[in-house]
Amino acid sequence: MADRANCWGDDALYDYEAIEASLTALLRLKAPIVGMKRFRTLSEMEATPDLRRPSGGRRFATDQIVAQSRWLGRTIGITMDDLVGAQCGAVVGLAPRDEAFLGGRSMAGVWFKTKADAARHQKGMSCASYGDYEALAVSPVAGARLGNPDICLIYATPGQMILLINGLQWSGYKKLSFSCVGESACADSWGRALGSGEPSVSIPCYAERRFGGVADDELLIALPPSFLPKIVDGLTALKANGLFYPIPSLSIVTSPESVLKKTYE
Predict the structure, then answer these.
(1) Contact in structure between 183 and 111 (CB atoms under 8 Å)
(2) 1 occurs within a structural domain
(3) Number of alpha carbons in the 13 Å side-chain half-sphere of residue 37
(4) pTM for this one?
(5) In this structure, is residue 4 part of a structural domain?
């Protein structure tokens, strides 16, 4: 059984099944919430219940591993040997941001005009620290197989996402800032959240949509599980105020005065 505590030392007991049910009802999410957790050793990860490992020498992109958990309900564990390259491994801390990675040679002429452009991109990527963890597993959070994951991944449409953020900001308001590195946008979500412990929204990139099953209308937020109850509480309060999903659209030629009066007065 995986240790309940995550990389933030959070060993609280969360009812993930109830949390997911609440968020699905409040936001009409299309797919389960996925947890991601790193392990210091391979043997620690292999203690995870119902764990699957890539087999037959096949290597994957990290976004494919996440997608298999999200869409197929699998609990999957990997090491760097299971990934197609450092571009995937470095974001989650399984590969170093070494000279070859930072040089960005493979990206030059593909996503960026010059080697200098590619190098600036690589240096701008938010990545988890390297050297502390040997393995990583992903699993639907409702199954609680990972204990408390390091981060939870929620995919949502723009309308769902802004209300999710509104729920997060309901109490203890804090302005949120996000980044956009372009291609390799998992650095803006997984990498940034693993490094900072803060909610991190991204516009999933070409690779996440090509290989990772991310729909054309989806955004992604990655955040530690400690934020989930706060989001549920905030969304519930907003709904009581008549602010809910799906957002009802008022005619563009109708005055909003009556709606505004009802909401704000």
Answers:
(1) yes
(2) no
(3) 31
(4) 0.96
(5) no
